[in-house]
Amino acid sequence: MQWVRDQVAAYEASGGREANTLQGGKDPIVVITSVGAKSGKLRKNPVMRVEKDGVYVAVASKGGAPENPSWHDNFLAHPLVDLQDGPEPRSFRARLTSGEERATWWAHAVATWSTYAAYQEKTDREIPVFVLEPVED
Fold first, then answer.
1. What does the pLDDT look like over 31-83, one tens digit per residue?
2. Tally of CB atoms within 10 A around 59
3. Domain segments of the chain as ranges
4. Would you give the DSSP letter of residue 105?
5. How far apart are CA 133 and CA 95, in angstroms?
6. pTM confidence score
7. Of the candidates 45, 49, 136, 35, which has an alpha carbon nearest to the alpha carbon of residue 80?
8. Under 8 Å CB-to-CB from 113, ≥6 apart: which residues?
9. Architecture category of domain 2-134 in CATH
């Protein structure tokens, strides 16, 4: 979508000083770059900033749609991603959570951005939660 491309371009060009909130709001975002599962091309997505102790969470909510966002499959196929939260991107490994771990991170995500709970109510699927852990150099 063009607005996503525009937001990502503005975010990256400004080192995260501009276009760093959800469109039309005050909620902070980060930009995640992944490799397309089918295309192999780089894909950049702004997602809500959910972080704890240097570990980030990416919630595959797609606004409560019945299907996962395309980046869900990208993370599964190519778990090494770059995440930009400020001026410079860093490398992370994305890992899909389940069970108690998912429940813990889901609760943290909802506490950070309560709209996730409303998204879960809109869909029959359990919204996937990825943990993004830093990759050490």
1. 999 999 999 999 999 999 999 999 999 999 999 999 999 999 999 999 999 99
2. 22
3. 2-134
4. H
5. 8
6. 0.92
7. 35
8. 27, 48, 50
9. Roll (2.30)
